[in-house]
Give the backbone structure.
Amino acid sequence: MDRPRPLVCTGFMNSENTVGQSPAAHGGTALVVVSHHRPDSLTAAVAGRAASRLEAAGYSVDLLDLHAEGFDPRNRVADEPDYGNRDKTYSDEVHAHFRRVRAADVIVPVFPVWWFGLPALLKGWFDRVWNYGLAYGRSRSPMAEKRMLWLGLAGIPAHDPNADLVRGLFDGPLRRGTSEYCGVSDVRTAVLFDSEGEDLSGGARDRHYRELFSEAEAAVDKLVAG
């Protein structure tokens, strides 16, 4: 199963960029959504790199750490879609989060791939916040002008027989079933395979993680370049 153990990557949080020159400045607001329960995880480190890359490109970054902010992924009665009223009022928490989504020009969820799917925390964020009448269900989508990058970390290597399940997740439920369904047409995906770096140590382990950071930064640069 594709559920990597937590990784402690504090030493990489503030290391230098690894993709050469920073991307050209663009401006706007970028929402980076982090879904991991450990602040010293590889996921958090990759999210920090993505945020720094976006800032270097001139974006104002809103870093949404779902665990640190205490987001509750469980649906409430107030969060159940009422398909007879697309203008219904949801819970205060849902509307507060969706205001951050609406304010963003670029949205970058960063997360570990667990059991070939999203972590419950991030799945619950989409279930509750990207709701009917907010993210979809309008004649003109409020998400139409936004761009997205799904940035995931998979424990298995790219040549694993089950890697196709990870790629299918990103191309199907995430890119098409979520982003494009809500009207986002410019959608990118990037999977950092072999995030555990199993059997690596010393310099080889350091090089492995620097390569992963380089892949993440390159994906952000492509998004920024549009």
Confidence is low (pLDDT under 50) at residues 1-21.
